[in-house]
């Protein structure tokens, strides 16, 4: 077994995508195991690998880690992306939690029934423009390149992931946010992130029907 982190999840974004983003931003190569059947998932549970019978699963530093937030916190701390002290860490946590709330809406959107999609898309747009993005626009107006301590952190990675995910659905969403437009350009040109955004990287495409069917097949009883 190599020393690379090993990620077990479906071959799609879901709750593993922020983990892929954070590892990639930290310049860490990783391996992936893709679940394709209910039987694979049930075997992980039977073998006692999944503490709460849930994926994502990340094997790193001799641990079998579950729960997305715990995984991300560990990676951020390990690779010095979690602030210099408790106050910066608390600020990063607040920003990350806010972004996660927005990303949760995007996460469930592909699984919403056809008749609800337009309403749900409007909700994403409203929350992004009126609740979440204004917070980060205000922070960046103070002339800093990054959200916390003017140093690259987990919060910046979460934000660029969210910006790009929302833009896929609402291309003009940043039209009223010049600071976020500049932030997007800066982040997208950072070497590790630029590499992750290239074709052929471990970054997953937006969910399609095949991915949705696979998820439902594996996890829906």
From TrEMBL:
One of its GO terms (biological process) is glutathione metabolic process. One of its GO terms (molecular function) is glutathione transferase activity. Residues 85-208 form the GST C-terminal domain. Residues 3-83 form the GST N-terminal domain. Keywords: Transferase. Its EC number is 2.5.1.18. It comes from the Eukaryota. SUPFAM superfamilies: GST C-terminal domain-like, Thioredoxin-like. The keyword Transferase applies. PANTHER family: GLUTATHIONE S-TRANSFERASE, GLUTATHIONE TRANSFERASE. Belongs to the GST superfamily. Alpha family. This is glutathione transferase. The lineage of its organism: Eukaryota, Metazoa, Chordata, Craniata, Vertebrata. The gene is GSTA3_CHICK_1.
């Amino acid at each position: 077994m190599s020393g690379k982190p090993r990620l077990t999840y479906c071959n799609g974004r879901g709750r593993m995508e922020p983990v892929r983003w954070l590892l990639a931003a930290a310049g860490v190569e990783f391996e992936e195991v893709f679940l394709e059947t209910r039987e694979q998932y049930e075997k992980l549970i039977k073998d006692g690998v999944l503490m709460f019978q849930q994926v994502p699963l990340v094997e790193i530093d001799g641990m079998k880690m579950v729960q997305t937030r715990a995984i991300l916190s560990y990676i951020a701390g390990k690779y010095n992306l979690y602030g210099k002290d408790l106050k910066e860490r608390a600020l990063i946590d607040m920003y990350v939690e806010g972004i996660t709330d927005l990303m949760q809406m995007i996460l469930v959107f592909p699984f919403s029934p056809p008749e609800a999609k337009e309403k749900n898309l409007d909700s994403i747009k409203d929350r992004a423009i009126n609740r979440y993005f204004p917070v980060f626009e205000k922070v960046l107006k103070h002339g800093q390149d990054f959200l916390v301590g003017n140093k690259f952190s987990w919060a910046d990675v979460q934000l660029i992931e969210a910006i790009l995910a929302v833009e896929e659905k609402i291309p003009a969403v940043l039209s009223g946010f010049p600071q976020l437009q500049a932030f997007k350009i800066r982040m997208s040109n950072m070497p590790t992130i630029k590499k992750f955004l290239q074709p052929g990287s471990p970054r997953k495409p937006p969910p399609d029907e095949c991915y949705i069917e696979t998820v439902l097949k594996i996890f829906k009883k």
